[in-house]
Every structure is written in C-alpha cells, then in structure tokens.
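Quick one, T. Sequence first:
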Amino acid sequence: MEERLQKILSRAGYGSRRASEELITAKRVKVNDKLPILGSKADIEHDHITVDGKTLPKIEEHKVYIAINKPKGVLSDNDPEGLRKTVRDLVPVPGHLFAVGRLDMNSEGLMLLTNDGELANHLTHPRYEHEKEYDVQVVARPDEEQLAIWRRGVVLEDGHRTAPAKVKIESSNSNGAWLKIIMHEGRKRQIREVGNRIGLPVQRIIRVRISTLLLGDLKPGEWRYLTPNEVKQLQTQSKEHEGTDSTLKRTGSPRRQITARSRLKGGKSGSI
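Structure tokens:
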C-alpha cells in the first residue's frame, strides 16, 4: 500500500516527519534509484528505498483484525466535518484500519476493521463473491411472488440488476416479518431499495455474517479481536475464491459455460 515517503522514513527511525522531509529535500533519499519530491508516495513492500545509499529495511507490520457490532446512527466511514460518531471512535486502536463491509448509518451489525489490505480487498471486491448474511425486518408480510422476485434479482432505479440472493422468512406476524437474506454483492442501500421497489419497506437491517466471520454475541457498540482460527478461516476462504476467480477468467462465467455446452449439444441455453 502506498503512503507518503516521509511517513515511511519516520516509521523506519529517521526522526520526525519534518526531519524526514529534510532528508528528501536534501536529495539523500531515492526511490527505485530516482530522486523523489516532497509529497511523493511509495510502497515499502514493492519499492526500493534508500537513504544515503543504504537500503531501507522492510518493517513487518503487526496485523490487526477486529470485529465490531456497528450500532444504528454510527457512520462506517469518516465524517469529513467530524461532527458525527464513526466506528473508529468506538475502537481506540492506533493506526489506519480498512473498514470491511460498510453499512449505512441506519443499519447495524458486523463489520471488520483491519490493516491487512490484501484481505480487505478480497472481502470487499465484488468479483470474489464473498457471502454476507443479514437479518432484515420488513413492515409487510411477504408473499411468495415478492420473495421469488427478490431471489431472482431486481432492477434498481439506476438500471443495475441485483444478483440472485437467498431469501427466506424467519418469522412473521400481521405487522410484518423478519427475513434471512444472503447475498454476494453490497451496493449502497441495496437491501432498502430492493424492499421499496417490491412493496416490502425495510425497517431494520442487522448483518450477522461476513464470509466465515460471525457476529456472535457482540452487543451494539462492542468490538473484539478475531481469534487466530477466525483469521485463518477468512484467509483460506479468500484464497479459494481467488482460485475460482482465476478459473473463471480463463474459461468465462458459469452462464457462458452453460450456454456454450448447450449450443454444442444443439439445445437452448438455460440456468441450473
């Protein structure tokens, strides 16, 4: 991950950031054998950085993995104006942490905070299709047609058609129902927009799972470090998804493969 060069130098023991800036302006620092300027960025894992001809040692960063139950009314991202509370305000751990599984302000549940950029990318990028599981309260009792539409995919206002999802009723009464929804994608306010478009306004959303990581008994606002086994499970799952993604890049999507096989047999394309 790229970051400002003076920050890298300071962390490596070359004094304050101001002192590190003076090293750069004095042309004592090189990145990949080139002289940088103030404000230049570098990646200590991939770039060759030297000070007075001596190679900067790579610093092994301690990896941090934190599960948090985001409460309603708290932002997942930083507030540019600094007026509203964010999940980082609830976790007094220093350093930059990526937010995995962002939720809108009125949604609740599981988020992962980590400085492991590679894992964060795998868990958030749509192409890896990691499952996310939600308990969703709607204010009307769904009928089978509404559930079937949600499962197949819904065209949103911007023209995007949502991917197929697993949707089932967990409990219901005359005032509405709790649904269990498992999906791979996570566009902004997707669940709420889908509910509105098919006549099932959403009252509450609680995320209970990201890939293999479970919310468990964390109360709103509480957080904890992941166990080594939980981290290993997430990493293993990510590698498996990466392998699937590489296979699809070579052979095409499952739908294309089915279509191709059908044409070879002289039949019509379809889905499984």
